Write the structure tokens for this entry.
Amino acid sequence: MHAELTPEEVGERIAATRHARRMTQHELARASAYSLASIKAIERGARAPSGTGLESIADALGVDPSRLTSDARHDSRVHATIPLISASIAGYDIPMDPPGRPLPELREAIRTAVEWRVGAQYTLIAKAGPALLRDALSTLHHSTGAERQTAARLLATAARSVDAVAFKYSHLDLSARLVELMRWAAQQTGDPLVEASTAYVRTEVFFAARAHTAGLKALERAIDADPAPAGSRATAVRGALHMRAAVIAGRAGDVTAADLHLAEARRLGDLVPEGTYDGTAFGPDSVRTHEVSVAVSLGQEHVGRALAVASEWTPPDSLPAERQSGFWIELARAQLWAGRADDAFESLKVARVIAPQHTREHPWARETAGTLRRLKRADAETLTNFAEWVGAI
């Protein structure tokens, strides 16, 4: 489902779009058959336009009405696959036809999907997702013993990759169902580290609901249940849980918990080489990106922490594209708070070059671009083009 905007947000979006079109309020009123007083009230959020009135305003601005009322900016290629993904998991616990491909081929296809996910190639995942989930489910239902545990692991991995599409594109109900499917599969793997990795992904549900305190407790329970680290994989899984816990603690405003989890993530990060473990990038560089994320999550009074990290370090090209772009998007937010609007726009442009799909669907990229556009900083035409591309106007 798309997030519907409040009257105030609709008014802001109408005003921003009008500014981008270089129209005055008087010109918009004349073109939309509204009175000037009504347009002013709508842009202030004091009045909500009627259905036909909204269409009239959208026609005058040359945009689809949905651009003014919701965050529905989906790539049509992704959007078209959402019903197919939903259908593919509707009867996940019911044995269906045998799988359409042998286990080695399925394993390779899922490995590729993981690469697409960390590389923020969401359209590729969306296209392959329905068949990937169907085959992973069929393989699980038609397997026994050790092969069934392998199939369960593959299903959990496939569900996580497809969930990246659902979550990033704001199909939150579908995302929650995919997380539950991942948890169901993880329980059948016989591997506590897969279950721990599932707890990492489940945090999306708490982020979406803004239930940050509950999400922090869920992660801390997962950390307590996680076996003592023995080897790089176990160390990385636990470290990733601490990274995630630090961020959600920041969103909850719990500075003490955020710092404690971040310190433990740093300690564990120094014990393993940077890499992708159980689907999550972890290592010293990943922890550094989360230092910025935690600072921004804690709010404007902690902006100096984010800027301090960026003053001496930026993500290397070896990090997954999604993680790199996330760093630049979060840094842009910090730079905007610090009054460095031009630097913020430059950071957004870097994020776009690294991972355009991730940047376009990131709410903070959209919010920062919209604020920059209202401030009319940097090159106006270039900034307007970026704001339109990211869906800020």
Observations:
- The two ends are 20 Å apart (CA to CA).
- Residues 220 and 314 are 29 Å apart (CA to CA).
- DSSP finds 22 helices and two strands in the chain.
- The chain has four domains: 1-72, 73-190, 192-313, 320-393.
